[in-house]
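Marked as duplicate of an earlier ticket. Keeping the data here for the record.
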Amino acid sequence: MLTGIELWARNQQLSITRVQADHAQPGYDASGVIDGNTNTGWAINVGSGSAPAAKMNADHELHLVLATPLPAGTPVRIVLRHEKNAHYNIGRFAAEIASEAPEMIRREKLLEALRIETKERSDQQKKLLSAQFDREDRELRQAEHQLSLLRQEMGLGKESANAMIMADLEKPRETHIHIRGDFLRKDQETGPLAPGVPKVLPELPPTPETPTRLDLATWLVSDDNPLTARVTVNRVWMRYFGLGLVETENDFGTQGTFPTHPELLDWLAHWFRTEAGWSMKKLHKLIVTSATYQQSSHHRPELMTIDARNLLLARQNRLRFDAEIIRDAALGASGLLTPTIGGPSVRPPQPSGVYAFTQRSKNWVDDQGSNRYRRALYTKFYRSAPYPMLSTFDVPDFQTVCTRRERSNTPLQALTVANSQALFEMAQGLSNRLMQEANSSTERIRLAFELCYSRPPSETEMKVLIDFQVSQAAQFKANPASAKLVAPDDARNSAEAASWTAVARALMNTDEFITRE
């Protein structure tokens, strides 16, 4: 800490009118060296941060401006005072006398002159600037209006979307092997680890600098790395057959299961990477148009002793739909489906009180119109309170990574299909569709089976449903008030419309409706 500085020439102390430094520790400004106070002074110690000015023992400059210039060749004696914190003295220093002010002071004087010039601008210049500002403001408002119209046309909401991003640290943290998983015990023999990939896989391509996430992404889809394509085709295969060619779809290592069809897995992975060009659409088309996929899923007793789990795919497997597809299947059968692609999330009907047990209540207002019948893909999803219908049918909670969904079978699922407000509206839509597109009871039941099951009804099914519709119509006719609650809003004959709603609910609330045969 420099508490004072004196300049002497020919036994006379020189007058210093101004002092300035390129850096100063907070609270220890350069002016303290000429104020005559031994408790104040100039210091440069900060000791934190990465900027050059924040480093200890760094070079810094102190500029002193004299009241009168010195004649050339005049010897000058410099006195440096450290009258406080004597242990913190200047270690090494150099002095230079110049006939002109240092660049830093000249720059400040120039800025001051510019500020004075700005203040002294004429009224005419100010008017020109004001007019220019007004013109630019009008242009900006017009651009914002055009942007608003474009966002409305594209179906974008007024609120801007936030996206999570990642950035590398300037100095990456060291990564070590922890002994038995204890983060306090580092393996000293191996030392810090460098970015890399497992030794059993192809090496990363050489890079001039430390490999980055982009290098890893390029390596994942390179021709030398077969694992990515194999995992991808295996998981797509799992969606269509219930199990992947490798049953442990999340583990292709030594702890995983061996492929049931290794040659097929090899060929699919190679075809997907080279011929399909990583096109998921081509991969889906290839699988669903194959003879293996188009097999019947009917049970074959003769296979029980040979392949009870049907791992060799001598037949197709019966699979309950995923949660989103159950909603979409009901929307498709009802004729209410809104086929629009893209746009913001929507809020279909859901039971009241869903957020009563969450940390924070959500403002869920049911959408009306076409948004009410968007595909389940567009349903707004809160991690703390997922959409109840989807959760009932085993949708993941969006808080953990999920490569395979479990399929449960619970009474709550049947209650949801029968009584959920959203699915009840779809049953009403199917009822309305049957009454508009078919005239007789038999035609309506045939149409309902085609829409719900993609097959015609048997004679027994036809008779059961006709009797059921007749009995329901009689009950609703005897109780008109209940018929109005069940029938679609635009139905002319409430009792008949309500009875067909009951039929639609019965067809939708079956195992066959939510199962791919």
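See parent ticket for discussion. The first strand starts at residue 4 and ends at 9.
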